[in-house]
Each structure stands twice: as structure tokens, then as C-alpha cells.
Amino acid sequence: MRSNSSRKPGNPRREATRSSSRPFRPSALRLISSVLNAVSLLAFLILVNPPFCSGQPAQSSIGTWQDRLRQRITAARFETARWGIHVVDLETGETVFDHNGSQRFVPASNTKLFTGALVLDKFGSAARLRTSFYARETPGLRGTVQGDLVVFGRGDPSFQSSATSNGLEKLGQALKAAGLKRVRGALVADTSWYQGGVVAPGWTVDDLDSYYSPEISALSFNDNVASLVVAPALHSNELTKLWWVPSDPRMTVLNRVLTGSAGTRATLSL
User: Fold this and answer.
1) Which pLDDT does position 5 carry in this prediction?
2) What is the tens place of the pLDDT at every residue in 32-64?
3) Mean pLDDT score of the chain
4) What is the distance between the alpha carbons of residues 108 and 204, in angstroms, rounded to a whole number?
5) 266: phi > 0 → left, psi -120 to 50 → alpha, else beta; which?
6) How many Å apart are CA 195 and CA 217, to the nearest integer?
7) Pick from 178, 185, 183, 131: which is nearest to 153 by CA?
8) What's the pLDDT tens digit per position in 217-241?
């Protein structure tokens, strides 16, 4: 497969088929559980002792709830923690509780909540992200395309990922249904739908080799992640065995990792 970042779909190409069977579910929504402890704790306390639903007067209940929250965040086990909490009454606009509410925190994965909400509000839950196949001609009588077959991505994270392991199989079935059996040319990956850098401006450098920080692309495969597997050798002080999943001969690693003795602690840096 070769990549083409400049080619755009146009009239010369005729669309063979496209994959749009999965509803658009932003992958960010799968990570909502990574919100800050402060927010999680706050939600827990509200569920356990809701201040506005008890038989006590509202102000008394709110005061009790505020005291409990202060006691929790000032507990000894949170001595080194930094909390930022700001609670507002949605009906009156009154601030019900504030602790470092005006200070700046690194939002981290909380940003995914706003990203997911924005996408759902803008496009709706029925939106689809298309991955299209283009060729300069339709398949002949024997199902052969003489030129290249272009895979044009539009950012679908489920094209072929850990969540959809049969994505390529479904695409193959769609191409077969369109009458395609053989391609004489090359399979060209077109990622030109997305313009700009492959790394977001706010990402930290020490996260770039992690699975949760893959490069941004209009055409993703296997979550845009390759796993490096490390296995010990038969004897200590021998070089370990390394291989990529999926395998790719273009990616090389200078291996200096030695196999330790049985029972020793493993240390590895990349």
C-alpha cells in the first residue's frame, strides 16, 4: 500500500462502494470514565446524600452537603492532592460550592466530554463517517480494474480497530458485491481529507509513544497503533526478542534489552 496525501476525489473517479454500516460513535465517549476524581467524588456524594431531595429544609441540606464535601477533600489521604470544584444551581445561577474554582487545571481527558457533546450536537447520533473506494473505471466483465484502487478516508476511527476487528472483511464483501475481483494497479491510501499536523498542539511529548496518542489521520488502521512485543531469550544476559504487531519491515528498533535472571525486576525504556 502506498500513501497519497494530495489526491482528491473528483469526476474522473467513480465510486465503487463505501463503508458506512456503523453509526458514528466518537471513541472519546468510551473514555468518559477518566474524568477527574473531584468530579467523580462530587457525583458520588450527590447520589448518596442528595441535598435537594431530602425532607430537611433546602438550605440546611445544602449546608450539610457542603460540610461533608469539605471534610472529604481536606482528608489526610488527599493531603498532596489538588482539588478544583465549582458547583452552580442551574435554576438560580447561584454558586453552591467553590474550592479553587477559578484556578487553572490541566483538563486532560475531561476534554473528551466536551468534544463528544459537540460532535453529537453538531452532527447527531445518526451521522456516519464514510470510507470510499474510487477507481477511474468500473470493473470489467471479469471484475478487473486496470488502474489503481484508491481508499479515501474521512476519519472513521472504526475503519479497522480493536473495536471492529472484522472491518476489512466487511469492506471486502462490499467491493465484491460491487463486482470487483481484481486490481491490476496499486492500492492507494488517500488521507488528504484531513489537513494540518498529525499531532495536536496540546499533546505532551512524553505521551507520543503511548497507545492513547496515535497520530491524527483521515484513514486509520488498527487505531493507528503498532504494538512492540518483547520476549526474553532462553538465557540471561542475551538480547531479548522483539517484533511488531502488526508486522512491518519498515519499522526497525535498535535492541539493547538484555534478558535478566529469573526473579529479577524487569525495566524497559523506549
Assistant:
1) 43
2) 333 333 343 333 333 334 444 444 445 668 888
3) 77
4) 11
5) beta
6) 9
7) 131
8) 999 888 888 888 999 999 999 999 9
* Predicted confidence (pLDDT) at residue 4 exceeds the cutoff of 50: no
Q: From CA 172, how far away is CA 169, in angstroms rounded? A: 5
Contacts of 224 (CB under 8 A, 6+ apart): 214, 215, 217
Q: Which amino acid is at 1?
A: M
How far is Cα 95 from Cα 218, in angstroms, rounded to an integer?
Answer: 43
Read off the amino acid at residue 225.
V
Angstrom CA distances, 85 to 40, 46, 91, 101, stand at 11, 14, 19, 5
First-to-last alpha carbon distance for the chain, in angstroms, is: 28
Q: Where are the beta strands (DSSP E) in the chain?
A: 2-4, 14-19, 85-88, 95-99, 131-135, 144-145, 149-152, 182-183, 187-190, 227-231, 241-245
Q: What is the pLDDT of residues 133-180, one digit of tens each?
A: 999 998 988 999 999 999 999 988 877 776 666 777 888 888 999 999
pLDDT of 28 higher than 90: no
Backbone angles phi, psi at 115, to 5 degrees: -65, -45
- Which pLDDT belongs to residue 204? 83
CB distance 137 to 112 below 8 Å: no
Cell numbers at 106, concatenated: 490541566
Name the burial class of residue 256, with classes exposed (0-12), middle (13-18) and buried (19+) by CB atoms within 10 angstroms of its CB: exposed
